[in-house]
Known about the structure:
Elements: E1 24-26, H1 37-47, E2 51-52, H2 61-69, E3 78-81, E4 90-97, E5 103-111, E6 114-123, E7 130-135, E8 138-140, E9 158-160, E10 164-169, E11 174-180, E12 183-190
Amino acid sequence: MLTSWRKLPYNLAVVPDAPEAPRAREASWPARSTPPHWATKAALGKAFPKFRPPLATDNLAEDMEWDLKEGRKGCLGVATSDFDGDGTKDFLLGLTALKGSGALIVVALARGENWKLETLNEWPEGRIRLYVAADKPGVYRRTKALDGPLELGEIDPLTCSHSAAIFGATESSGVAYCYNNRIWQHVWISD
Length: 191
């Protein structure tokens, strides 16, 4: 039985098709408590009624197996790190559409006793190959595979002074998001 939202073994992966300004929502459960699973699901459902928390079965078995062989937990839909540089553990989540094969990529930033939920992107399809990950601070460069102009909000190079939120399609694409000066900026790092 799942008893702590911070320890739920959710699984997801996403491929963004169009940039969208992140939207912030305040979650209704305390960040430092351990709410029952139904309370967590209810809070996410209230903030994002067209999506549900990810499950391991949302991804291909071969992708989960590869993740396990790489020494990780086989969970492609949840990543943890300090994404905003405030010294607290935050979450990157790939939520699964209730209808169709879409996904929503959300960052849950710890804010005292609450969470601030910010939408990074929504993908209308391709959920089965979605992954989310945390990466170290550093400079991220746009992939040379993309030769067109930068998309709206894309920065190249992108400097992250704290952890980057990475998501994309397994064996295909990846985009790095960094929370700089209270806004999310991104760059495509693989395609």
